[in-house]
Design a protein that fits this description.
The chain has 173 residues and is of the alpha+beta class. 32% of the residues lie in helices and 40% in strands. The chain folds into two domains: 1-30; 31-172. Strands 1, 2, 3, 4, 5, 6, 7 and 8 form an eight-stranded antiparallel β-sheet that branches. A hairpin with a 2-residue loop joins strand 7 (148-159) and strand 8.
Length: 173
């Protein structure tokens, strides 16, 4: 009886290890993408500086390899989150130039824009007794770089003098 339980235990460890190896993606996805130069070296600070804003505090700049771990096809992703203080008078100029500079940055890397959806909403609200601009600029760009296809979300949310920029780049074959 003891001998059978030892064999069952060893068989369980062997099956568990094999399943863990496959689920972790090591054998399923050995060809995980490396990411284009656009994904690896995109500089939010350079885009924002060309739009007239240089005082960004980067909260996160991270590359996710692979992303997500159990995706049907291999992907790689990068997320950048940064904050800055921009006065309401400068916000209108920044809003006009930021997305133009983001598009120019994608083109500088050779990305071909194959589609885009925009969501832009602006309003003025009263914050602490004084009027403040609130603006959402959430475009989604679909691009290709040779045989790499990607999605670029280069967004910002502005409210009461504070702007949060969120850049999400996701690429795959």
């Amino acid at each position: 009886m003891k001998r059978n339980s030892i064999w069952l235990l060893l068989l369980g460890f062997l099956l568990g290890g094999t399943l863990g190896f496959f689920v972790s993606g090591r054998l399923i996805r050995p060809d995980a993408p490396e990411g284009s130069a656009l994904l690896r070296s995109f500089l939010l600070a350079a885009v924002a500086a060309k739009a007239g804003q240089t005082n960004w505090q980067v909260i996160e700049d991270r590359i996710y390899e692979p992303f997500p771990a159990r995706a049907r096809s291999p992907r790689i992703a990068r997320r950048i989150v940064a904050r800055a203080d921009i006065s309401d008078s400068d916000l209108t100029r920044f809003a006009t130039q930021f997305q133009q500079e983001a598009s120019a940055a994608l083109a500088a890397y050779g990305a071909l824009n194959i589609g885009q959806f925009d969501l832009i909403k602006g309003s003025t609200q009263v914050v602490k007794g004084s009027p403040a601009q609130v603006r959402l600029d959430l475009p989604r760009r679909y691009y290709s770089l040779g045989d790499i296809h990607g999605v670029a979300d280069i967004w910002y949310v502005a409210e009461g003098g504070h702007v949060t920029a969120i850049v999400s780049l996701i690429e795959g074959p």
